[in-house]
Amino acid sequence: MSITRRSARRSVRILGVASATVALALGVSNSAFACNISEFTAKADCDGTNGVIVVTDKDASGTPVTISVFLKNNGSDEQVGESQELTGSREGTTATFTADWKPNATYRVHVKGGPVDEDIKPDLVTPSTACKTEETPTPTPPETSPAPSESESTPAESQTPTPSASESSTAPAGTSSNAPSPAAGDSNLAETGANSNTTLIAGIAAAFVVVGGGAVFFGMRRRGANSNR
Q1: What is the distance, to the nearest Å, from the Cα of residue 128 to the centroid of all Cα atoms in its chain?
Q2: In a designed cystine with 101, which of 13, 51, 163, 192 is the match (CB 3.0 to 4.6 A)?
Q3: How many angstroms separate the CA atoms of 203 and 209, rounded?
Q4: What span, in angstroms and rounded, lies between the C-alpha atoms of 31 and 100?
Q5: Residue 56 DSSP one-character state
Q6: Can you list the domains of the chain with their CATH numbers?
Q7: What pTM, to 2 d.p., does this model score?
């Protein structure tokens, strides 16, 4: 059976349609399994009392990518830790970044690998409650001085009795000074230098001596005269 020109054209056409269909199917299949930014998610979580940021990759094609996390701070992004390599899976694989995140902070998560080189949208905003609540310091009560004991508050009585006013102001009776007291005449002489009474007394005494001596003399002469008789 000979193949006519028309039959050959029809066969070529059918083959072309089949090839195009296969190519389209392969293209759709490849695009379906290609890495896509929509397959990545980020979440702020707590590992005990430490804050962490967990990035999940559910890329079924298993395309290796690099994950980087940045803290957005008034246009000056600060990278958190080091970038991590991640290979996705249909079930999902995760990369964990340790970050002591603050409440209501904003983080930018960047994915780079295969056809993807962009940030996960929207940006990650942390919860309003931190992983570890700051403990409020307990106020320290003011120090109070210990109440003085009875022995400390009341001064001890002195062992030496305090003399009364009369005893302290009046010297004890019967006490005399060991120093000799000056004679009366000495005190008068010290005050005046001489005493007129002393001269008068001395003159009278001398007169009495003279009279007495004369009386004795005349008495002895008279006794001698009587004996001669």
Answers
A1: 31
A2: 51
A3: 10
A4: 38
A5: E
A6: 37-125 (2.60.40)
A7: 0.47
